[in-house]
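Dear support,

We are seeing what looks like truncated structure output for some complexes. This example has two components. We would appreciate it if you could run it in full and send us the complete token output so we can diff it against ours.
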Amino acid sequence: MSATVDPLAAIKELIPQATERASLDHPAINVPADAVVEALRQLRDRGGYDFLVDLTAIDQGEGVADRFTVVYHLFSTAASTYVRVATDCRGGAAPVAPSVTAVWPAADWHEREAFDMFGIRFEGHPDLRRILMWDGYPNHPLRKEFPLAGVETQLPDLEVAAETGTKVLPAPMAGGPFVAPAGEMNLTNAEPRAKDESWNERHVKPE
Amino acid sequence: MVSSNNELAYNTKIEGDVIVTRADAVINWIRANSVWPMPMGLACCAIELMATASSRFDIARFGAEVFRFSPRQADCMIVAGTVTYKMAPHLRRIYDQMASPKWVIAMGACASSGGMYRSYATLQGVDRIVPVDVYISGCPPRPEALLDALMKLQAKMGRETSARTLLTA
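Here is the complete output from our reference environment:
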């Protein structure tokens, strides 16, 4: 691909179903879920994008029609250019997307992570298990309705849970999440602080 | 005429081959000066733990240089790092596999209280799953802090009623 050619136009030539996706940096396209595997294959074999940088997902929040989107980042090591491919999942709150492990073996663990964190079921994945949370954990932590502090659950090992009487409990947030002011060079001022300092562990949260 | 005994140290010619002391003093002295740590390195604190074990800080000066990666051969678990809920039961099982008497040092903010990880994945303090003897503040603590904790643990071992515990066990 020469530098004079508009990369987006070249990609659209390869993938007729692609529509342009709003992007601040690299060329980005939307592809329907049933065409994404073929689209990634075309980008790899004919577009020169020979490296799957990342595979992740977006949750738009409850009540949105196409709630979950899977995002693929590809890189061309020859041309040093990126392309972003996004596809909306089918299935609403129980999202389903096709697995691209046949095209990119590297997508295996990325898809397991997206399944673990968002609950997206990748059809055709060889071994779709949780990768970060333990087997049997009932939630998908990166979904919008899941609180950062977590929810009460059993420990992964019931024997240890019975012996210690410990559970998975919501973490005390105390006005958090804690954020550091951006661009602050003074280390004392850059110390992370609670977003809402009107409550902490001693004083309850005002209603 | 009876000569006064000016000997300050133990003298075999006078006292024979017998030393009189308390059983607790002997047992605790032996235990405190040969702590065999179990390095439960789970995050960046483990780097400081390794520094403590190496030449510059040299935990061998306190008799605790025999790091054992088998819980069966260790008696002091040093929890160095962030304990996730996924890891917590394994940590408890490793603790259960250690032979008594055993001690636990919670090294750093994460092991002591969850530290900066106020999130769904992190156990908010390792004392929820194993009994902790010494807590160390810091993120991560310097090796001197770990050595200080070890000395505090040795002092704590010195106060234990080990003989009674052994006889009643």
